[in-house]
Design goal:
The chain is mainly α. The chain has two domains: about 1-85; about 90-224. It has eight helices and no strands. Keywords: Membrane, Transmembrane, Transmembrane helix. This is G protein-coupled receptor.
Length: about 220
């Protein structure tokens, strides 16, 4: 009977063969983005659990689960980078567009799931007033909008015509611009109700908006 050590010695030369690595990358490439979204969702739940209910799960178990998610996320990003962030058979020549479209989808899932699952936990760090049911409803509604908009980004790479992909970029630019405008207006209109930490959310949306607008300009210039 072969021991585990002998089995590893036999399998390692086959696993590190370039052809095997290429086939594995091609097989897992289509599943990495979805797996990353699921891992990030689990990680958000773990962070919420450690912050709000630290005694529900033993801290050591939470730490192990977090590091497990971190390690798999790092592996997924490395595999995606090695495969040029391609998705399906519609591979865009520009690697940066591959990255931005899929990162856009990931960010939508992260923000949407967070606002859907625990809006009160996110809001109480930013506001000074008492939060009611209407606040939670509006927060969950915003989370639903972000989560559903991830479908556009995740499917845009399957569209072969650049003009069709511009539709996805226009949608993202419009959503981010309106969200940013609403945040800035609310910050100044109700300045007594917001904490300083609200500017963190504004800066994140600002970065997202600028990235979407720059991608829109770059894609339109390439079409011309």
């Amino acid at each position: 009977v072969l021991s585990a050590c002998h089995i590893v010695r036999i399998l390692v030369p086959f696993l590190i063969h370039p052809l095997i690595i290429h086939l594995l990358l091609k097989y897992f490439a289509n599943k990495l983005t979805r797996t990353t979204e699921e891992l990030i969702s689990v990680l958000i739940v773990l962070v919420h659990c450690s912050a709000e209910t630290p005694n529900l799960i033993h801290p050591n178990y939470l730490k192990i689960a977090k590091y497990w998610c971190y390690s798999w996320l790092a592996m997924n990003f490395c595999l995606q980078t090695a495969h040029r962030w391609s998705l399906g058979e519609a591979v865009i020549t520009n690697v940066m567009e591959n990255v931005l479209f899929q990162m856009d989808s990931l960010v939508c899932v992260i923000i949407g799931v967070a606002w859907l699952a625990f809006p009160e936990w996110l809001l109480h760090r930013q506001v000074r007033t008492h939060l009611g049911v209407s606040h939670e409803f509006c927060a969950r509604l915003m989370g639903t909008d972000f989560l559903t908009s991830s479908v556009i980004s995740s499917h845009a790479l399957h569209w072969k015509k650049p003009t069709n992909r511009l539709i996805a970029i226009d949608c993202r630019s419009l959503i981010c611009t309106l969200t940013l405008a609403a945040q800035i207006w609310s910050q100044y209109a109700y300045s007594d109700h917001w904490n300083v930490s609200h500017w963190v959310g504004i800066s994140l949306i600002s970065s997202w908006t600028i990235t979407a607008l720059l991608l829109r300009y770059h894609s339109a210039a390439q079409i011309k």
